[in-house]
Specification:
The structure is a homodimer of 793-residue chains.
Chain A (H helix, E strand, L loop, with lengths): L12 H10 L12 H12 L6 H7 L11 H6 L7 H11 L13 H7 L11 H12 L9 H7 L14 E2 L2 E2 L9 E8 L12 E8 L9 E7 L51 E2 L7 H7 L4 E5 L16 H14 L5 E2 L13 E10 L1 H10 L6 E7 L6 H4 E2 L2 E2 L10 H8 L6 H22 L8 H4 L13 E7 L8 H10 L6 E6 L14 H13 L13 E4 L7 E4 L8 E7 L5 E2 L7 E6 L3 H6 L3 H10 L2 H4 L2 E5 L7 E15 L5 E15 L4 E9 L6 E6 L2 E16 L18 E6 L3 E5 L4 E7 L13 E6 L4 E6 L1
Parallel strand pairs in A: 5-7, 5-9, 9-10, 10-13, 13-14, 14-15
Antiparallel strand pairs in A: 1-2, 3-4, 3-6, 3-8, 4-7, 11-12, 15-16, 17-18, 17-30, 19-29, 20-28, 21-26, 21-27, 21-29, 21-30, 22-25, 22-28, 23-24
Helix pairs in contact in A: 1-7, 2-7, 10-11, 13-14
EC number (chains A, B): 3.4.14.11
Subunit structure (chains A, B): Homodimer.
Catalytic activity (chains A, B): Hydrolyzes Xaa-Pro-|- bonds to release unblocked, N-terminal dipeptides from substrates including Ala-Pro-|-p-nitroanilide and (sequentially) Tyr-Pro-|-Phe-Pro-|-Gly-Pro-|-Ile
């Protein structure tokens, strides 16, 4: 398994020496040292757990240089050079690998090559020895962290605690801040909103974790995570809406309107700056923030309107939500008032902040980064938005249908709003807010319009992609290509706009579902983020903007292979069109002539069978006899060469339903018995990554080849037959009326290996995502007017 | 769900007042305060997150006293009393419950009753108010911890950091130690062993976590965990032995002998006492230890011989292992040398230790408590042994058969020894030890004798139950009644001896598999352990020895019900005998007359089916047609009244096999469609328990009624037909020869609810535990000579 590394910055020898001396690793007078003494010294320096020279010396006997000699014995002969094998036998131990179990003392570099670990050859003088150690300290250990971070986890950098300044090594910030003394405090930002309509501006609770060193005058950047879940989650899955119901006539649609809440302008900040009087009880929810906090970056969390400790109503997705999230940045940047408590008596300032703010977070937390970025708020320098929604319609709806995020059948915007309305848990707020909250819930439920599933002004107000012109900060998007919760369309569509803006922009696509990627084996994402935030928020010229390709895409066959691309779009590939034949083939040679039918039975058999949605999906795509009945399937021959599908495949279908309403689904599936990657990464060393020195841990993980499966879903899409004329407006439909539908499927980057074939499945009810009608409907497909087009590399 | 509480010590009013004043909760001059001022003050004191009186006052508006009044409004009227409902509406919020979602403001005490939370009524004067708060601070919150521990997690007790003394509240130690400054160090204890036969006594690495306050002269007790896994785990499941093989003729047995390793006596300690020079890199592995570390108890971990950082070979289960674990206590008690590093140059003493040592840990770590306790070593005052092995034969063998621990098919003692031989990861040790290790592995493999499965001198040396007379410390055993890894016989059989020793002894039996119980909803085990260790290791007279019943057993129908018993033995119940009939019934009325047969097919169908062992077991006990074929089953009528089976059921079977060898299994199963408890506890608030102040967390959990199942295994046993004469000696067997076997099944405490029935299953191959022969064998049971006897309440 390759430990790929993109965050290592090429460094000249002079700089290597300087940096090594600055961190007290290399003796200042190193030129006076013999080769063997220096070798011993540098190995000992890495043994941060041994506190005396005697203790360090004792440990040299625990290293093997060859199959018959320990490092202690080797050094006793006062060598003036060290062979590549000898050096890396020791180095691999320092990196946490185990002799015999991981690598062979006879050939360490063979193992290093397999793991993509860098080797410095011919260590025959002190300069080369220094270079070898510089590179080694920057080499990823078995636990995924660079050796320097492993040493940090053993306390190496506590020697610099209290120096009150940032330190850097190879362009990245070092954990030189006293994490025992982190300040954790709570303040209340005054917004311009009055969502609870009490005539007073809503206060929003903000939690800050910042280095103690900021009390001694150091100013630091803030990593701000707008997390609606921070105050707690109201569990309400049991109230999820009924999905076992018939479709309605979509022309009942009445274009529900978004209506803005009242505004109560807050005053501008005055001179007062009292210290915070409340300590944080909530915790940082993201290891990447903790890792960076140990390195000097403050972590700031705020739930926003409606969440615990804050005023107001949770109007999920609405402009008010964006505003409340944005205004926290205004306070961080010095442009807005915060109070020490909810009585609004004393103002308190973010005087510890250097005015440069980055945002982090996944899912809803990533979504709010997109939202805030579109406001162009002053102080926001960069966002690292993971698995984010770019339009709420694309989260809960698709092409005129109610479509659930994976594993969330029946969930909708109103329920998510309830989930986050955690200020109901503060009984004082509860007494005041409950009636207004109930009214808002009713309004959300009505306007989200589960009846017709159509786009409307209500959803338009929740589409951030219409405001990308406002974006001024640099941009990193991260998304899982198998994310069926926040589907890839969300990142793809905003990427098409962001990539044309005059801002730095990057995209990472991994093989996970709705997941982070900061602790994968195959890429040093955490180190990249260190480099990035140092560049964007501290202004260090560390090459971060040119260090790695614009688009990085994890391979779906080999998890430790990352494709380096300039873009993610159709035009990465060549157009190819396949046609269904009368005999259920999918070929490039031309269409079938028949009209073929299937009868959809809704959720009838599924609910009777008591199987999970994912079980259903697997059986369905595999072509299991029982489950594949209500579908048409067309399959290619086995591929002789691998083919990579890029961008958004498009399916055209001419279809008629037996009722005056209908929903059609199309899926693209890879068929072939093979061991595919695990759906979620496997944990490799639980808690094995130290984020600082005794300051929380994270776990290395990676997608791994797993047990044999028969098929894998590549992409799919769903559409309301009544949207045959316009995706944003329903039309009348007659029973039996043929209509032409054009599906843009979820975007992908998927390699079909040789030996597998590709199948197009046309069906209706998707048990895990669509409504599941109670009535049967027969769908007839005109094969002569049906095709699939995609772009392939 | 009941939050039962056993660790609350009844306290008189005078003592309540004293304790509340001592922790700066109650103002010294409280008698000068008005009722309403004192009520406000005490609520504010619990709000440890608010640091100023202003911030605390602001928060009073967040509490509701009634459906229409906040606490702030209520207090504004200067009340001279508070109603029970009003008080507990506030109290429940303080305990972390949520208005509307958890309880109803109109009737808080109804909720409290359901959760078994104590209520102090009629709070009409200051004395009653004080009592109500004293009880409230000692009441378990929603997260399972008492409110005082929740406040500790918000930093309440940091005001006492640096005072260098223990503090107690309601008989339990308080977290008043500065956990930011915990000392984590490593020393090397010199043993009397030379298991690696290098002529030098083996050193054993010991890791100590102790309060910084011990450097200022405070002496503290040590909680010692002997953990062979502490240095790391060598993953070797892939080398597990083959179990798909035929039985052998057991008379090939040759009684393999245990042979002791050489001894090299260590010198006695001298005067030298250097500070440790190595810091710990490994971590505490048990939240209970961390919880107690914050409360002043040092945590000491040692892997023992053969583990990382230590010399020697891992001879699992052997007296050498016991010795190496015991000698750490001798150092803690001042009776043995430890060095600062492996060069043995400088001695270092446990001068921070008050000489009182307790042991903690589960599984192998619990096993070593039993082992060490039998030595009667000075300094060891108590053990809390969880899910421990009391005889290694009972872990890997049963009645002349190779029987695997659950989910460990093919594992054996040699492989466990390899798992723990983590000093092979130190390359210096590897070079030296590997050849000796290989020889030892060969010896273990031979002598464990997977061929015959018989008891021998080798196993006799690994049976701690023959040495219980040496036990001098007090004793707590904890075991899961569904532990099929370390089966309940292990705890049952040693309990029968321990209960007759002149020592304090307790037993907890929970409904888990191989699990801890320190964070269950249904019992305050962590608090009990606080009380216990304070009593045993600090000598505080806190009633710990009389605070809870000798034997506590969790109910298998209602997880929040604990049976309070004097003992766990057959004689808790009345004997009852059931007989199998010719028509597959199980009745009290008399035997069938037939001889009935089944043909065992070994693992043939199981391995072909590619299902998990647990899937097999569930289908098998349910009577699934395919899987139940190779068995005989006899079932009672549905029970009209619930019946509790206690102790060890006994099954007598007259059986003949078609081969001159054979293995027979018997299982007792409850049949009935109902929602049974989850197999493992459900996590309720992940990470919601603070172990100190920003010092690690634990998660509240409990067994919960789960989805409907058809059957549940109560107990089972397996036997080699060749042991029909003697459990410790095989006999010749002829094909077709009838023999009488008497099975003692695993002990239990299992309530069969009315409506369920009881089934006796007689079978041979147990896919998850026995060998799985390649050849068929037909077993004929003489029903006239077959019966099951058990004790019922």
């Amino acid at each position: 398994m390759k430990y790929n590394q993109y965050a290592y910055v090429k460094t000249d020898h002079e700089q290597e020496v300087k940096e090594l001396i600055d961190i007290n690793f290399l003796p200042r007078n190193y030129e006076d040292w013999s080769f063997s003494d220096l070798l011993a010294k540098l190995v000992k320096m890495t043994l941060a757990e041994a506190k005396s020279d005697e203790a360090k010396t004792a440990k040299l006997a625990e290293f093997a240089v060859t199959e018959s000699q320990t490092l202690a014995d080797f050094l006793a002969d006062k060598p003036e050079k060290i062979g590549t094998n000898e050096f890396y036998n020791v180095a691999l131990q320092l990196l946490g690998y185990h002799v015999h179990y991981d690598y062979d003392l006879a050939d360490p570099t063979a193992f290093m090559q397999r793991n993509a670990l860098p080797v410095v050859k011919d260590i025959t003088n002190v300069a080369q020895l220094i270079t070898a150690f510089y590179r080694l300290l920057n080499t990823r250990s078995k636990n995924g962290q660079i050796l320097l971070d492993v040493m940090a986890g053993k306390g190496y950098f506590t020697q610099f605690w209290g120096q009150n300044k940032f330190m850097f090594f190879n362009g990245k910030a070092l954990p030189v801040f006293d994490t025992n003394k982190v300040i954790r405090e709570v303040v209340y930002v005054e917004t311009d909103l009055d969502t609870d309509q009490d005539g007073k501006s809503d206060l929003v609770q903000v939690t800050i974790f910042r280095p103690r060193e900021t009390t001694a005058g150091l100013k630091v950047p803030a990593l701000y995570t707008a997390s609606p879940y921070f105050g707690g989650i109201i569990a309400n899955e049991k109230r999820n809406h009924k999905v076992d119901e018939n479709l309605s006539d979509a022309t009942e649609w009445n274009d529900p309107q978004y209506v803005a809440s009242p505004i109560v302008k807050a005053a501008k900040p005055a001179a007062e700056d009292k210290p915070a009087t409340e300590k944080a009880v909530h915790k940082s929810s993201y290891p990447l923030n903790e890792y960076l906090l140990a390195r000097g970056f403050a972590s700031v969390f705020a739930g926003g309107i409606g969440t615990r400790g804050s005023d107001g109503l949770r109007i999920t997705g609405a402009p008010e939500e964006t505003e409340s999230a944005k205004e926290v940045i205004e306070w961080l940047h010095g442009d807005r008032i915060a109070y020490t408590d909810r009585t609004r008596k004393h103002e308190t300032k973010a005087s510890w902040c250097n005015g440069n703010i980055g945002m982090t977070g996944r899912s809803y937390l990533g979504t709010l980064q997109i939202a805030v970025a579109t406001t162009g708020v002053a102080g926001l320098k960069t966002v690292v938005s993971e698995a984010a929604i770019s339009s709420w319609y694309d989260y809960y709806r698709e092409h005129g249908l109610v479509i659930a995020p994976e594993d969330c059948q029946g969930e909708d915007l109103d329920l998510l709003a309830e989930t986050c309305q955690s200020n109901l848990w503060d009984a004082g707020s509860y007494l005041k807010i409950k009636p207004k909250y109930d009214a808002m819930q009713k309004d959300l439920l009505t306007k989200e319009d589960r009846t017709t599933g159509q786009y409307s002004d209500y959803w338009e107000a929740r589409n951030y992609r219409h405001h990308t012109d406002g974006i001024k900060c640099s941009w990193i998007s991260v998304h899982g290509l198998n994310d069926w919760n926040v589907k890839p369309k969300n990142v793809y569509k905003i990427w098409q706009k962001v990539k044309n803006l005059p801002i730095k922009h990057h995209l990472f696509l991994h093989q996970g579902p709705h997941y982070n990627m900061n602790n994968l084996v195959s890429i040093d994402f955490t180190d990249l983020m260190n480099l990035w935030f140092v560049h964007e928020l501290l202004g260090l010229k560390n090459n971060a903007d040119k260090q790695w390709p614009t688009v990085m895409i994890q391979d779906n066959l080999e998890a430790d292979k990352w494709h380096e691309e300039k873009d993610w779009a159709d035009d990465l590939g060549q157009e190819v069109v396949y046609y269904p034949t009368d005999s259920q083939e999918l070929t490039k040679d031309g269409n079938g002539k028949e009209k073929q039918s299937f009868t959809d039975v809704g959720g009838k058999e599924f609910t009777a069978a008591i199987i999970s949605e994912s079980d259903w999906q697997y059986k369905f795509i595999c072509g299991d006899e029982k489950w594949s009945k209500p579908s048409l399937r067309f399959t290619t021959d086995e591929f002789i060469h691998p083919v990579t599908i890029v961008g958004r495949p498009e399916v055209k279908v001419r279809v008629a339903g037996s009722l005056p309403k209908g929903q059609l689904s199309v899926a693209l599936v890879e068929l072939g018995d093979r061991k595919r990657l695990t759906a979620t990464p496997k944990f490799l060393m639980r808690g094995g990554q130290e984020l600082g020195y005794r300051f929380g841990t994270d776990t290395l993980q990676e997608f791994m080849p797993d047990k044999l499966t028969k098929a894998k879903l590549i992409t799919k899409a769903h559409m309301n037959l009544q949207n045959y004329q316009d995706m944003k407006k329903p039309s009348k439909l007659e029973a039996g009326q043929f209509v032409d539908l054009t599906f843009k499927l979820q975007p992908t980057y998927y390699t079909i290996p040789s030996g597998s074939s590709l199948a197009l499945i046309i069906y209706s009810t998707d048990q895990g995502m669509t409504k599941r009608p109670l009535e049967d409907e027969t769908y007839t497909i005109d094969l002569a007017q049906t095709e699939i087009k995609f772009y392939q590399k």
